[in-house]
């Protein structure tokens, strides 16, 4: 029976599966004309029909034929130039040792294919469409419902959850994959990655609308953010890990929800692994992007441009992907039309900010088995503003909205720099095992907005501006060794090492000049140490075992042992207190075990137990140490989290859904009090997550997610969890929903909503204030025009005046900033 593969998109994504014993071989390729166009016939000698995965962009259609090798009598490639008037080229070549890629390039319009299998041959019917059919991102892959169907003609590969190439439904964990198509669609309303992911990922807190992801937890605990497997955290946690790369450089994002130690410490809530773009397809292609963003309430002061240029492709053994983007954000305005201060919710702002990102990935394939890959990513944020937050709101009665005040004079602006370089080597057949070796270097710098601490003795009664400087290098070596036969299981084992040096100095400002200028002029008079220089070494040893019990049961289990050493010299605090340095040693051994059962091809049920761990933010504790304190007085015990989870996934042709429940506990906490002291009491967090995507027809799609999380702390350590965890950890109920329609050929529209509920925990203290609910609505529209696409995005379509959760939890009104009002974004993208 003919199978339709009409799939449109902006890029292709194929994650390569491990070598299989049942690999087929394509022995002959030929092109024949037919009444409906062209037929491409691929003869193969395997017993099973190869798996097919396809996507299209512009005039190019890419079809990847999995678990297949190319064995032609006259060479290792096939090409046909101008086989008819509509088709410019057909090319068939090896993608790697175990997969074959077919590329069809048309003269105009988008190519499309239908295929069937008959008499030991794959027969592709090739046609062209007059206009490009837009992608409905949720039709083909469900990023939030963990979408992968069990049938062989739908395949989704994940690397984050197991550090290995895996079928998504074989992983006994809640996972989400956000494809490039979803990311680019969300970029039509915002380029803030935290906002994009919150719309797509259940379990992730609502967006903060600031430069920081502080308060944006995953399942009520901390997130570990990676770029191509490289940790973006610093041991003096500044919670800006999601703002280290532009979304335009991202191929996909893989999110593992729930505690894990698979990559080391810090992922007590889960992992967000950002996979950068890789050059794919023969030849070089380019994409240009230009858009303008503005607030109708103040068009002139808010008009902001974005320019993005990407080049990618493959030439012989070399593949390259280069992406450069520039965004200039001017003023931001809330639903009442008022300017939002440059430092909303005291966590860093996005107003009056220029952002530059240059990212490249260069690969060289020595042989079919061996590959060397170089990654370079540089991200720069600079907030050059003459606005600050008006301190008068703290003196007015009642709850007051934060106000912007002009006239700021500040020498060193808020800024972020992130330089990342890595070198990867893979060998798919090293004595029967697959080797992956990686070494990397990261140089990170961020400077915060000034802070008036004249009423805080522990902060020296000063006015200061802090910055975090971090340098990190590390590497990992892992091998994937088949066991019990290649189809029955494997053992992944290896070692990780990271060395990081971090400190947090501050500039001190003249209080008299500050006072006489009504808080507008900052004149530097000196510098001090806030967090001392910390040298941290992490060494981790790990092993992960996978066993397939037939086709219906997959079992997994693993162990990781981590050792951490922190070395701190003697230092003097910002308040002038002398502190004795010393060393801290942490170690932890973590386990995980889980399994997946397939009652049917469409249903998978999973359960798992996993452990994650993290050490306290030592630098944050040490910056408030009192006189006579010694570093070695700190508690050297790491926080270990035990997590239990069950879930079910359904993947039918038109319906995809997932439901999971989790419960995790830790004997030690990592929550902070208002005066930066660590609360080391037992904690428990639990919740339910649901996702649904329905495609009733080719032109319609709808769905959404539901997230409920709660948690408590046992401050008395008596077994009674009477005190709720604060709102920076536990977010209110979050619901997202969307409906999408291909209104006319080439014109696609999406309406999406995000609801954040209310929460009023009992008790008083840091982050325990009442939170009010809000709902936002966005419109995304795109229209194919010629060789490119016009896009229109409207964020906060109804111009709702609301306050993000993190703003509502702030104790001072200077940090009680409203969210963005109605925002328009109009752009055009062109592939060439």
List the helices and strands and how they pair.
Elements (H helix, E strand, L loop, with lengths): L2 E2 L19 E11 L2 E8 L6 E7 L2 E7 L1 E3 L7 E4 L5 E10 L2 E8 L3 E9 L2 E9 L7 H4 L16 E2 L7 E2 L6 E6 H7 L6 H8 L22 E5 L2 E2 L18 E8 L12 E7 L6 E12 L4 H4 L1 E12 L2 E12 L23 E13 L4 E14 L3 E3 L14 E3 L7 E17 L2 E15 L3 E3 L8 E21 L6 E21 L1 H6 L7 E26 L3 E16 L2 E2 L5 E2 L2 E16 L5 E12 L3 H5 L16 E13 L3 E12 L4 E2 L5 E2 L3 E15 L2 E14 L9 E2 L9 E11 L2 E10 L17 E12 L2 E8 L9 H4 L14 E9 L1
Parallel strand pairs: 2-6, 15-18
Antiparallel strand pairs: 1-10, 2-3, 3-11, 4-5, 5-9, 7-8, 8-9, 10-11, 12-13, 14-17, 15-16, 17-18, 19-20, 19-48, 20-21, 21-22, 22-23, 23-26, 24-25, 26-27, 27-29, 28-29, 29-30, 30-31, 31-32, 32-35, 33-34, 35-36, 36-37, 37-38, 38-41, 39-40, 41-42, 42-43, 42-44, 44-45, 45-46, 46-47, 47-48
Notes on the structure:
The protein contains 7 helices and 48 strands. The chain has 832 residues and is mostly beta strands. The strands form 8 sheets. It has a 22-stranded antiparallel β-barrel. The N terminus is likely disordered.
């Amino acid at each position: 029976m003919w199978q339709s593969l009409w799939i449109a998109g902006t890029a292709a994504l194929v994650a390569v599966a491990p070598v299989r014993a049942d690999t087929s071989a394509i022995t002959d390729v030929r092109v024949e004309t037919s009444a409906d166009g062209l037929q491409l016939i691929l003869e193969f000698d395997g017993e099973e029909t190869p798996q097919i995965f396809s996507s299209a962009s512009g005039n190019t259609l890419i079809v990847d034929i999995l678990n297949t090798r190319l064995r032609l009598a006259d060479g290792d490639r096939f090409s046909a130039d101008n086989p008819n008037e509509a088709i410019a080229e057909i090319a068939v070549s090896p993608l790697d040792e175990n997969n074959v890629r077919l590329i069809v390039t048309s003269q105009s319009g988008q190519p499309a294919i239908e295929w069937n299998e008959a008499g030991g041959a794959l027969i592709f019917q090739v046609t062209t469409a007059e206009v490009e059919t837009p992608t409905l991102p949720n039709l083909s892959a469900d990023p939030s419902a963990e979408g992968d169907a069990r049938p062989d003609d739908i395949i989704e590969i994940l690397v984050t959850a197991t550090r290995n190439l895996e079928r998504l439904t074989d992983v006994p964990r809640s996972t989400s994959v956000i494809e490039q198509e979803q990311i680019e669609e969300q970029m039509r309303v915002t380029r803030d990655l935290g906002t994009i992911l919150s719309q797509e990922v259940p379990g992730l807190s609502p967006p903060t609308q600031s430069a920081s992801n502080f308060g944006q937890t995953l399942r009520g605990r901390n997130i570990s953010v990676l770029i191509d497997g490289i940790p973006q955290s610093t041991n003096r946690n500044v919670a800006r890990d999601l703002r280290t790369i532009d979304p335009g450089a991202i191929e996909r994002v893989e999110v593992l929800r729930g505690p894990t130690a698979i990559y080391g410490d810090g992922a007590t809530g889960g992992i967000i692994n950002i996979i950068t773009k890789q050059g794919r397809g023969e030849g070089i292609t380019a994409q240009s992007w230009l858009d303008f963003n503005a607030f109708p309430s103040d068009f002139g002061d808010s008009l902001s441009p974005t320019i993005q240029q990407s080049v990618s492709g493959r030439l012989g053994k070399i593949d390259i992907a280069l992406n450069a983007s520039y965004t200039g954000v001017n003023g931001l305005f809330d639903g009442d039309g008022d300017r939002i201060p440059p430092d909303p919710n005291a966590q860093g702002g996005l107003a009056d900010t220029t952002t530059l990102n240059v990212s490249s990935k260069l690969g060289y394939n020595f042989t079919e088995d061996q590959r060397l890959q170089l990654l370079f990513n540089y991200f720069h944020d600079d907030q050059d503003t003459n606005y600050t937050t008006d301190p008068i709101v703290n003196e007015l009665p009642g709850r007051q909205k934060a106000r912007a005040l002009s006239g700021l004079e500040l020498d060193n602006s808020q800024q972020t720099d992130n330089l990342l370089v890595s070198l990867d080597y893979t060998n798919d057949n090293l004595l029967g095992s697959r080797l992956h070796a990686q070494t990397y270097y990261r140089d990170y710098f961020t400077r915060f907005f000034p802070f008036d601490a004249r009423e805080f003795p522990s902060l020296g009664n000063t006015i200061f501006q802090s910055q975090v400087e971090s340098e990190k290098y590390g590497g990992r070596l892992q091998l994937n060794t088949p066991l019990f036969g290649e189809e029955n299981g494997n053992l992944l084992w290896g070692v990780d090492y990271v060395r990081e040096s971090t400190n947090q100095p501050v500039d001190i400002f003249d209080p008299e000049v500050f006072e006489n200028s009504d808080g507008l002029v900052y004149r530097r008079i000196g510098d001090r140490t806030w967090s001392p220089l910390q040298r941290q070494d992490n060494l981790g040893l790990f092993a992960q075992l996978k066993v397939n019990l037939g086709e219906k049961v997959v079992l997994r289990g693993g162990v990781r042992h981590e050792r951490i050493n922190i070395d701190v010299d003697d230092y003097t605090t910002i308040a002038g207190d002398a502190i004795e340095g010393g060393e801290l040693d942490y170690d932890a051994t973590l386990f995980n075990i889980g399994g997946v059962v397939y009652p049917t091809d469409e249903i998978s049920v999973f359960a798992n137990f996993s452990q994650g761990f993290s050490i306290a933010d030592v630098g944050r504790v040490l910056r408030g140490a009192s006189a006579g304190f010694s570093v070695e007085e700190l508690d050297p015990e790491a926080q270990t989290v035990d997590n239990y989870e069950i879930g079910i996934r359904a993947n039918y042709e038109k319906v995809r859904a997932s439901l999971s429940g989790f419960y995790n506990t830790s004997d030690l906490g990592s929550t902070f009090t208002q005066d930066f002291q660590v609360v080391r009491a037992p904690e428990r967090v639990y919740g339910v997550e649901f996702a649904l995507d329905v495609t009733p027809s080719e032109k319609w799609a709808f769905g959404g997610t539901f997230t409920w999380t709660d948690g408590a702390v046992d401050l008395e350590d008596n077994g009674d969890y009477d005190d709720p965890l604060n709102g920076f950890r536990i977010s209110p109920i979050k619901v997202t929903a969307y409906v999408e329609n291909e209104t006319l050929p080439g014109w696609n529209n999406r309406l999406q909503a995000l609801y954040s509920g209310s929460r009023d925990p009992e008790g008083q203290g840091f982050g325990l204030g009442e939170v009010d609910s809000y709902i936002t609505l966005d419109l995304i529209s795109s229209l194919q025009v010629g060789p490119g696409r016009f896009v229109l995005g409207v964020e906060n379509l109804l111009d709702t005046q609301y306050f993000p959760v993190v703003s509502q939890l702030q104790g001072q009104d200077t940090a009680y900033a409203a969210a963005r009002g109605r925002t328009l974004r109009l752009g055009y993208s062109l592939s060439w």
